[in-house]
Amino acid sequence: MLTPLIKQLMKIIITILILSFNFSLFAQSNQMIGDYTHIIGQEKTRKINYKLTLNQDGTFLFHSYTKDKQGIPPEVNAYGKGKWEAEKNIILFFTDKENDIDEKYDLDFNGSKARFISKSPRDKTDRIVETSLQFFESKIFWIERLKILKN
């Protein structure tokens, strides 16, 4: 039989383990928060600029700007917003069709997933790993396989 003191000690140890696990998850998602960008092309001919902001409150904003002098129209903006969650190193995106989609924010990120890439703290080599997000699943065809770097 366990004595009351041992039972109390076990409860404390389990509580500490659960809290430390939650803090490590929070620290990882905290590392993901920020602005990510990717620019393709030259200003003179065709330029595409992607910007994604992951906010601390679990919301995100996305903006794609395309400037193509030979395009019709020559400038195109696309916007998206919604909520995001982190599961290990995967970021899941959610768009509420009633609240997040309107005339300006018309991109539906539901089902979009991106991998968070960063250098492991255990990696002591001189290898450079740029902190980034790599989309690997999305209903938006031009976002799938998009890699954007953290600023």
Overall form: elongated
Name of the CATH class: Mainly Beta
Total helical segments = 1
- Find the CATH superfamily: NlpE, N-terminal domain
Low-confidence stretches: 22-27
Please indicate the percent range of residues in DSSP E strands (runs of 2 or more): 35-45%
Helix-residue proportion: 10-25%
Class per helix and strand makeup:
alpha+beta
Number of domains: 1
Number of strands: 9
Measured distance between first and last alpha carbons: 57 Å
How does the SSE layout of this entry go?
Layout: H1 4-32, E1 34-41, E2 46-54, E3 59-68, E4 75-87, E5 90-94, E6 105-107, E7 113-117, E8 132-137, E9 147-150
Parallel strand pairs: 4-6
Antiparallel strand pairs: 1-2, 1-9, 2-3, 3-4, 4-5, 5-7, 7-8, 8-9
InterPro entries: NlpE_N_sf
Organism: Maribacter arcticus
Protein name: NlpE N-terminal domain-containing protein
What does this protein look like?
The longest helix has 29 residues, at 4-32. This protein has an 8-stranded antiparallel β-barrel with strand order 1-2-3-4-5-7-8-9. The protein has one domain (33-150): Beta Barrel (Lipocalin), CATH 2.40.128.300. β1 and β2 form a beta hairpin. It has one helix spanning 4-32, and strands at 34-41, 46-54, 59-68, 75-87, 90-94, 105-107, 113-117, 132-137, 147-150. It is elongated, with a radius of gyration of 21 Å. The protein has 151 residues and is α+β, with helices and mostly antiparallel strands. The protein contains 1 helix and 9 strands. This is NlpE N-terminal domain-containing protein.
